[in-house]
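2024-03-11 09:14:02 DEBUG pipeline.ingest accepted 1 chain
2024-03-11 09:14:02 DEBUG pipeline.ingest length=241
2024-03-11 09:14:03 DEBUG pipeline.predict start
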Amino acid sequence: MINPSTTLAEIASTAPVLTRELERLGLDYCCGGKRSLAEACREQQLDPEAVIAELAAVPLAPAAPADWIGLAPAELVDHLEATHHLYLKDALPRLSELAAKVSRVHGEAHPELIRVAEVLSELRADLEPHLLKEEEVLFPMIRTLASATSQPSFHCGSIANPIAVMEQEHVAVGALLEQLRALTNGYQAPAGTCASTRSLMEGLAELEADTHLHVHKENNHLFPAVMALDERLTASSPQRV
């Protein structure tokens, strides 16, 4: 049951099929997942009751919880690397090459496609170092924390510090994805363009959906679980003098 006080993260986690509707309505469930539906609707000048009715009209087939729901932090980190990180390492260079080709062929008639290639390049420049920082810094810290019996000492101080950096970078990535959606009118290929343009639009829509889910898993599941674990270890560790 969805009501105005339900958070966007709760909607996305309990009924993943509704994430497409949230995206269509401009309701950010990843970086903005902690907001209530009512709050998010106010920001988008939407009527919460009308949105609830739209979401209720989406057929919900009986389904088991997503296989990542309930994973412990170390397991969730493994899942993120094996799914979303692997996907991005393939998709970003492939889509960048396709966007460059489409902008060369159709950019004169459709200048927005040149800008699409530029924004995608910015997104790639943000995401690839972001993945590296997670894999080489944050995720090893999380694995260490998960196996610890007392509060470990990290070179950067509290694990909250790299988590805060990742969350800030997620916001920047979200803004670039919003630009791509606006530039492409919701990932629609301009009339008269080729099959490559349609493939690009399909790829960008998939990239947005996967990245939104990726950020949702981190911001609304992994990071809160890690901070709770960190607090428990801090409370149970002897105070350092």
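2024-03-11 09:14:41 DEBUG pipeline.report Residues 73-236 form one domain.
2024-03-11 09:14:41 DEBUG pipeline.predict end
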